[in-house]
Every structure is written in C-alpha cells, then in structure tokens.
C-alpha cells in the first residue's frame, strides 16, 4: 500500500513537472493561450490572497498582472528554471508585492508627525518642483495618465476614481493593457527628460 502511494506521488510530480515545462515553453514563445491558461488556473487563489490584505487598496488583477509580468521576465532571463511549481512561484511573487505595499502603508500610518523635520533641505523641494514641471510639459495623454496613476489630479472626483489601471482605463476609454503600456511609455519618457535635464543634476549634486 505504501509503495503504491509513493508511485502515485511520483507520477503526480512528473505530471506537474511536464505541465510546468509546457507553460515555460509557451511563455518563451510568447503564446497568448499559455498566459490565458495561467490566468484561469491561478487568478482565483491570488485574488483571495490579495483580498485578505484588509488595510491596503490593491486591485487583485493589478497584482496578478504585475506578478505575472515579473515571473515572465524572470523566465526569459533564466532566473526561474522550474525548480518549484510555477503556480507556487507566481503566488510567492504576488504575495511579496502585497507585503511591500502593506509595509509601505504601515510605515506611512505610523510616522509621528512631531518627529518630522521642519527645515528640510530646500533642494529637495526644488527637485520635486522640477520633476513636476517637466511632467506638466509632457503631451497631454502622458501628463493625464501619470497624474491619475499617482493621484495628482486636481479634480477631486477624478482623483477618487484614479490610481488603479482598471479605473484609469475606464476613465480614458481604452483597454486595460493599453493603459498599462501607455503609462510605462510615458514614465520612460519622463525619466529620460529628468535624467537629461542639467538643472536636475545641479540640484542633485
């Protein structure tokens, strides 16, 4: 009886390994059906885990997408080679994303305002002003999506509806993936403009 149980376990391990090998092969080939399969298989468990973090506002789909993007990148870089189950690996990445946001939120809430220095270095404010100035000079579609993502909108209703890519996409009337890609492109453009700005380097050093 014990030997049969061991044999059955070994077969399950081999089946899971072959399944994960096919997933990795599909990811490397950028196969859309593979990504859809991962969503159907793993989203519900990750969504439940995200929803268990009560004190942070995170969209389960945003966490899943960010986690899957990181997992895919790690596979393509050779960081993940199938040493563990892919679903376990993806779950761990998504949990770490939630923990990072949770810890950030906790630190912000526990800061004692009486301990904050009143006279911060003026350069810090000048750098911030410069970054915002450069951001405001971007084309409107970039400025708008950055403002929404970082909750910088002047309009209070817009501000309350923003932040998650799901809400941003709905507000702009575009697809979720288009909203994410536009934000990534716009942030890359903003970063480049900041890094190439002489005044930024003067303030920084």
Explain what you see.
The protein is mainly alpha-helical. The protein folds into two domains: 10-110, Orthogonal Bundle (Rna Polymerase Sigma Factor, Chain: A); 121-204. The chain has ten helices and no strands. The chain is elongated and about 60 Å long. The N and C termini lie far apart (72 Å). 13% of the residues are buried. Mean pLDDT is 78; it is low at 108-123.
CATH class of the largest domain: Mainly Alpha
What's the tally of helices? 10
Structural class, from helix and strand content? mainly alpha
- The value of Rg in angstroms is 22 Å
Helix content: over 70%
Tell me the major beta sheet.
none
- The best one-word shape is elongated
N-to-C series of helices and strands: HHHHHHHHHH
In short:
This protein is mostly helical. The protein is built from ten helices and no strands.
Lay out the secondary structure.
Elements: H1 2-28, H2 32-51, H3 60-77, H4 86-110, H5 122-136, H6 140-149, H7 156-161, H8 165-172, H9 176-195, H10 198-204
């Amino acid at each position: 009886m014990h030997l049969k149980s061991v044999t059955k376990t070994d077969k399950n391990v081999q089946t899971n390994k072959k399944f994960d090998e096919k997933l990795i092969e599909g990811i490397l080939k950028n196969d859309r059906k593979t990504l859809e399969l991962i969503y159907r298989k793993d989203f519900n468990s990750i969504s439940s885990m995200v929803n268990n973090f009560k004190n942070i506002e995170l969209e389960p789909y945003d966490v899943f997408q960010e986690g899957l993007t990181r997992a895919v990148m790690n596979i393509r870089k050779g960081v993940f080679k199938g040493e563990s189950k892919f679903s376990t690996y993806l779950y761990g990445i998504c949990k770490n994303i939630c923990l990072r946001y949770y810890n950030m939120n906790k630190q912000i809430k526990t800061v004692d305002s009486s301990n904050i220095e009143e006279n911060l270095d003026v350069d810090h404010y000048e750098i911030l002003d410069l970054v915002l100035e450069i951001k405001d000079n971007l084309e409107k579609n970039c400025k708008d999506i950055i403002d929404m993502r970082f909750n910088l909108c002047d309009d209070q209703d817009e501000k309350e509806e923003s932040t998650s890519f799901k809400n941003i996409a709905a507000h702009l009337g575009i697809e979720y993936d288009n909203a994410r890609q536009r934000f990534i492109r716009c942030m890359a453009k903003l970063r480049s403009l900041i890094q190439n700005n002489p005044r930024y380097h003067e303030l920084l050093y």
